């Protein structure tokens, strides 16, 4: 049993109420990979477009580490456009005049879904570090309950970049019959040693902040702003490419003609990073950051299937479209190719494109016409096969 | 006037006395690039081998960001071998039976040379943030005074990797007539936007630590251990390559068979990084870290010479040997090639080798036989030209 209510979601005890998202409040417990059961839990989500009578036109968008459900509407905290409005909307490659698009805040997130900043019913206080450590599979299983609740037997597509792509792969592996097409972008089937290392730096930066208060900062009435900002700064470098940084900032000075011979933000790139750090703290919960990075580190689809990645996809009838970017050093093309090889090994239907871009990992969020064309073409072809009407002109 | 004394150096008010290094105590002020004069200041240094009668066999080794003067002897704090014993010593490519090798702790350092942890004579307290912001050029100018003091008109060679290589380039640019040969390894003539970004993350991590105490932690009797450890962890990732991390650690778990579903150091790479962070704090001063990274960020040899790098070397008679490593993403080969092109533009004598290695930037400190052969060959050829005797058998 589950109840869906249009509600105003309080993000945490200290944050302002958000604009309305739908809220799916699950009444059945969720059995997590760690062995614990989570109950109750809720998943906040946005929808765009209309579900058709056959319920065959639903597309689930999975967000990345610091993303949320606001994929194609103005963000209630930042006031910025939806994070993937270039890809999702009326006439866009994922066309909301034809498809019913769902995007939910992940389990463990901090924008309405249950996470470490939510109230633990056993104590009446924020979960903090008592929240169970979750996995990408757990995030997907919670999404499955949401899709059940919406009465959708099979998703036309599951689409996501970065950690969103990990969820796409997990959907395709754990819930084969419910995924007609899958579009994992700029992602990998496992988290590399270097990626774990960068995440660990971020976690240690948060935990080094005395205002983290051993995870109980909400109860203590503080926020580990400095630590979380440092974590974001370090991570942000990995989202770009050296070339992108050099082209965007080079060694340009910020608001000055000469070096100040001080520790001020002399260089534009320093000023930019400091802004990325401080603005992130205003919209993200520090413990959520710990939990989500941990889930990514734990992700290893082959390990879940006898150390053979192809086993994850054995028997699949899903059609895959795998996308990578040449300058993405966080999830380099070689890791997308491993996915493609595993799919080939089980004779799955897969197309793969490596897109030439100098924008680094963040390319998947940016204006990349080749990615748009690729997604549009793949979706239109699959839609034609099952008789979903033609796309409106862009 | 200057005095040289064999002395026991106190590294900072809080640290144990070090084993003996030579100490050059300058009596003349040093005019810094920022416009300030520094006086008094001291440079701690080690020597190996014997200066010949002609004073023609002196080689200066320049250390990197977290290095020090203990290039070829057991380190007085860590008890580890000298940091470049693979390259420097009896029978080694830089053979201390033939050459008089000098290695000094840089100005701004924390192992005996004057830096922010030293006592400011004006206040009787540690300099802290009152220490002037220095440049690579300032470090080199202080070394010049040391070389003057040792009575050496021309160095047979100046050799260094990473920030040591920046010093080599600055020596060759500022003091052409005093450098017979120069060996810049795994370095660049300017610090890229991405490298500035990583340094800024490190500085912000230090400054975010309340125990940094706005730079006055020595007076406050504390040490910003957590912040400095995070800074070191982030930097350390950049010294390796993704492949090196994957080969060394992969996704191997540390002392456990299964994931712990916690924020413990489940993965070996996490445990390794935490160790790198915590052990670094025992041997390095946080403010020195700020000042030295700043000097590296400010380094831009072309900007010092009308934005034309070749101008830095115009009129040089120095012989150069430039070395890079294929997997070094901190100072990629392209940046070494810029140096070579600038040298070619002024018809300088330069040889260049890119060494195939998967060990990343740290390769310059590791067992890289091709680098040893290259340095040995280059030095032997130059030594033969000026009649320094043959190398003993390795």
Write the layout of secondary structure elements.
The structure is a homodimer of 394-residue chains.
Chain A: E1 2-7, E2 21-26, E3 30-31, E4 37-38, E5 41-48, E6 58-62, E7 88-89, E8 94-95, E9 100-104, E10 119-120, E11 125-126, H1 136-149, E12 155-161, H2 163-174, E13 179-185, H3 193-208, H4 217-220, H5 225-239, H6 242-248, H7 268-281, H8 286-298, H9 309-313, E14 319-325, H10 333-345, E15 349-355, H11 369-385
Helix pairs in contact in A: 1-2, 3-5, 3-8, 5-7
Characterise the protein shown here.
The structure is a homodimer. Chain A is an alpha/beta fold. Chain A has 2 domains: about 270 residues, Alpha/Beta hydrolase fold, catalytic domain (Rossmann fold); about 100 residues, Rna Polymerase Sigma Factor, Chain: A, CATH 1.10.1740. In chain A, the strands form 4 sheets. Chain A has a 9-stranded mixed beta sheet with strand order 1-2-5-9-6-12-13-14-15, with helices on both faces. A two-stranded antiparallel sheet of chain A has the order 3-4. Chain A is globular, with a radius of gyration of 21 Å. The N terminus of chain A is likely disordered. The interface between A and B is large, with 58 and 58 residues.
């Amino acid at each position: 049993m589950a109840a869906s209510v249009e509600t105003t979601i309080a993000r945490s005890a200290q944050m302002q109420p958000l604009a309305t998202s739908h809220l799916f409040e699950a009444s059945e417990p969720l059995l997590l990979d760690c062995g614990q059961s989570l109950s109750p839990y809720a998943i906040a989500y946005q929808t765009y477009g209309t579900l058709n009578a056959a319920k065959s036109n639903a597309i689930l968008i999975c967000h990345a580490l610091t993303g949320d459900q606001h994929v194609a509407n103005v963000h209630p905290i930042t006031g910025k456009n939806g994070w993937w409005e270039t890809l999702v909307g009326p006439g866009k490659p994922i066309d909301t005049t034809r498809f019913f698009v769902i995007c939910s805040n992940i389990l463990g997130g901090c924008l309405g879904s249950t996470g470490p900043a939510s109230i633990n019913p056993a104590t009446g206080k924020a979960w903090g570090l008592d929240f169970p450590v979750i996995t990408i599979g757990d995030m997907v299983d919670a999404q499955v309950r949401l899709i059940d609740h919406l009465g959708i037997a099979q998703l036309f597509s599951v689409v996501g970049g970065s950690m969103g792509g990990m969820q796409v792969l997990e959907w395709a592996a754990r819930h084969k019959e419910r995924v007609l097409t899958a579009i994992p972008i700029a992602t990998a089937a496992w988290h590399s040693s270097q990626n774990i290392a960068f995440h660990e730096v971020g976690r240690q930066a948060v935990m080094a902040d005395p205002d983290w208060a051993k995870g109980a900062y909400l109860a203590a009435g503080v926020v580990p702003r400095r630590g979380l900002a440092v974590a974001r700064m370090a991570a942000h470098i990995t989202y770009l490419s050296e070339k992108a940084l050099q082209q965007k900032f080079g060694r340009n000075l910020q608001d000055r003609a000469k070096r100040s011979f001080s520790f001020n933000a002399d260089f534009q790139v320093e000023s930019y990073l400091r802004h990325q750090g401080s603005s992130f703290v205003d919209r993200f919960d520090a413990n959520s950051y710990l939990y989500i990075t941990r889930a990514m580190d734990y992700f290893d689809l082959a390990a879940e299937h006898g150390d053979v990645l192809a086993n994850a996809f054995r028997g699949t009838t899903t059609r895959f479209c795998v996308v990578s970017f040449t300058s993405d050093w966080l999830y380099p093309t070689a890791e997308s190719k491993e996915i493609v090889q595993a799919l080939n090994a089980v004779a799955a239907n897969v197309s793969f494109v490596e897109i030439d871009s100098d924008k680094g990992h963040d390319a998947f969020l940016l204006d990349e016409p080749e990615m748009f064309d690729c997604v549009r073409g793949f979706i239109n072809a699959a839609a034609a096969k099952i008789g979903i009407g033609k796309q409106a002109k862009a």
